[in-house]
Design goal:
Elements: H1 10-18, H2 25-34, H3 39-52, H4 57-71, H5 76-85, H6 90-97, H7 102-119, H8 125-138, H9 143-154
Helix pairs in contact: 2-3, 4-6, 5-6, 7-8, 7-9, 8-9
Length: 163
């Protein structure tokens, strides 16, 4: 339970909560609930924040995806999992992820493959390939994309028996 100074309005508490970083609607609601505001106050505050443009899950999802992809390559599946953990609805997640093309997903997989393949340089060639594919798949990339990345990196055909 959050302790709020007496006399602090729910909107002031919510704005203070939003100041350090963007939040989802559910995160704002949970915060205000923890502050012991009434259900009506929480609802009214969230509606007002929506009107002001401070609470918008679709914008949050787009900004979240753009930020993650700008800092390091990550799969659509991993982005989906991260957005779910922030209580973003599946419909909004699907809409936001629709902007990621198969080409972008493959480019991210290839960048990730290069990183892991380089990190495993002390291993035998076949083991490097196997472990890199395994890591890509565990990070949410499709097996077929992982295999294509390795074929491109190694300039050779990769067997289907890597798993």
């Amino acid at each position: 339970m959050k302790k709020v100074k007496s006399g602090v309005s729910p909107i002031d508490a919510a704005l203070k909560f939003l100041t350090p970083k963007a939040r989802t609607i559910r995160e704002i609601e949970d915060y205000l609930d923890d502050c012991q505001y009434s259900e009506y106050d929480v609802y009214a505050t969230v509606e007002r924040l929506k009107e002001l443009g401070y609470a918008d899950d679709l914008r949050y999802a787009h900004d979240f995806i753009d930020s993650r992809l700008a800092t390091k390559p990550v799969s659509k599946q991993k982005l989906r999992e991260q957005l779910i953990s922030h209580s973003v609805s599946r419909d909004i997640i699907n809409e936001a992820l629709a902007n990621i093309t198969p080409e972008t997903e493959y480019a991210n997989a290839l960048a990730t493959a290069k990183k892991y393949f380089h990190q495993l340089s002390d291993l035998p060639h076949d083991e490097r390939i196997r472990r890199t594919v395994k890591r890509l798949v565990s990070h949410g990339y499709d097996y077929s994309d992982a295999k294509l990345c390795m074929e491109e990196l190694c300039d050779e055909r990769i067997d289907d028996e890597l798993e």
